[in-house]
Amino acid sequence: MKRIAVPLATLALILLVWQGSVDFGFIPNFLLPTPTQVVASLANDWQLLAHHAATTLLEAAVGLALGVLLGFIVAVAMDRFETLYLALEPVVTISQTVPTIAIAPLLVLWLGYGLLPKIVLIIVTTFFPITVSLVSGFKSVDPDVVDLMRTMNASRWQIFLYAKIPAASDQFFAGLKISATYAIVGAVIAEWLGGNAGLGVYMTRVRKSFSYDRMFAVIIVISALSLVLMKLIDLLQKVCMPWKPQERK
Predict the structure, then answer these.
(1) Angle between helices 82-95 and 46-80 (to 10 degrees)
(2) Where does the ABC transmembrane type-1 domain start and stop, copy by copy (predicted)?
(3) Spatial contact of 130 and 72, defined as CB atoms under 8 Å apart
(4) Residues whose CB falls within 8 Å of the CB of residue 124, separated by 6 or more in sequence, listed in order
């Protein structure tokens, strides 16, 4: 009960301070809308927000799925071949030093304003956490377990399936949660640069009209989508790793 009450009380206090700061004139209303104005914008524009959110969620889901698939393939190859690991490890790391906002205009220039550049950008942003977490997980397997399986004539595939995959599962889901949030943010950033629908497109339009209450409403929707994806991943982890809740207890 305390774990729920304390965060809710903290959130309520922040909202009260926010509301009071604007109502009493400490912060001009044209710079910062009140929470009540943001809620009103959510209520008035919920159909439009739902339409744009569906587009962003579709882009994020497709990009995340492809990013996870690509990350898994690369991680398996890096674990299997030491030379490939030495060759790709610095490249994978360097790829994350380039800001996403710097890549997005190039992708739009090369691939146009359709769905493809948005998907590619999401793949780029979600690929790294999956690859790194899986490679680290594969290498964390107990060597004694591998040696034992080899004495029992286990094949390389059986060692991978029954030893390395379980060892990497926890780290994989941790990386997947990070990638899920990156997917939503990556989709919004890509939509800033062009498109017909999506939360990023909607945010750009309301920003140009100085409707800051609607901008805050979009931010809330983006945060909500990220939280929903993370919760779904938690549920998936419980299904795939039923022993984890018992371990935590």
Answers:
(1) 150
(2) 53-233
(3) yes
(4) 67, 95, 100, 103, 186
Token representation of residue 38 = 């943001």
37 Cα distance to chain centroid: 28
Among 14-23, 104-113, 182-191, which is the least confidently predicted range? 104-113
Residue 76 makes CB contacts below 8 A (sequence gap 6+) with 134, 138, 160
Amino acid type, 101:
I
Kindly state the percentage of the chain with pLDDT values over 70. 98
Distance CA 10, CA 17 (A): 11
Asked if 125 and 185 count as a contact pair (C-beta separation under 8 A), the reply is yes
* Nearest CA-CA partner of 74 in 59, 95, 89, 62: 89
Place of tokens 């977490």: 133
pLDDT at residue 5 in the model: 83
**Residue 238 phi/psi, 5° resolution?**
-65, -35
Which residue's structure tokens are 């698939």?
A: 69
b vs e for 110-122, b when ≥16 Cβ sit within 10 Å of the residue's Cβ? eeeeebebbbbbb
Contact 63, 126 (CB under 8 A): yes
Phi-psi region of 194 (alpha: psi -120 to 50; beta: other; left: phi over 0): left
